[in-house]
Specification:
The protein is an alpha/beta fold. It contains 9 helices and 9 strands. The strands form 2 sheets. Strands 5-4-3-2-1-9 form a 6-stranded parallel beta sheet, with helices on both faces. The chain has a 3-stranded parallel beta sheet with strand order 6-7-8, covered by helices on one side. Strand 4, helix 5 and strand 5 form a beta-alpha-beta unit. Helix 2 crosses helix 3, helix 2 packs parallel to helix 9 and helix 8 runs parallel beside helix 9. The longest helix has 22 residues. The radius of gyration is 16 Å and the shape is globular. The two termini are 29 Å apart. The model has no long low-confidence stretch (mean pLDDT 97).
Amino acid sequence: MIAYDEAFEALPLVAILRGIAPDEAVEVGQALIDSGFRILEVPLNSPQPLRSIERLADRFGDDALVGAGTVMTEAEVEQVAAAGGRLIVMPHSDPAVIAAAKRANLTCLPGVATPTEGFAAVSAGADALKLFPGEAMPPKVVKAWTAVFPKQVPLLPVGGVTPERIADYVDAGAGGFGLGSALYQPGMAPEAVRANAQRFVAAWQEAAAAAG
């Protein structure tokens, strides 16, 4: 079973599958895995999200870190863990939810928008910080954050990220990204997801190589 560090080192791009249905989860997941993705997130406001998480974890758990997004409560953390999820992504930085994730030995990426929230999340045990919404946090903000946040806690812009925007963020110090509608939209054919995924992977690899 792949560990968080392994998944992140392989490709620090989180596939956000908002709106995915259980009967399409495995095919879409396969397209992402084939393209190099190793972190798959099913937001809990998707149709039957726990069923999708269970199917993805059963099929790809050895090769990918599978879990949930839009996790708001401690009870939801328990539900995700029971479904086989090992990743908790939050739109906020509630320390109680972060603590619940860590008690369950799950990777936790809370959402933060200010340094105060970010440092509180790190103190609570965050494995990485989801900079949300990314549209409100341009590369110059990321660069400022990298000067003060621990190097071992990656900063991941989420929201409005496209392949064309990756290079500037990486140059500023972003350690990865959460990818939403530019990667997957409900009902999208697996081959279309695969094509989008390959564009993101190429953009990441090029930017990472340039940044050294």
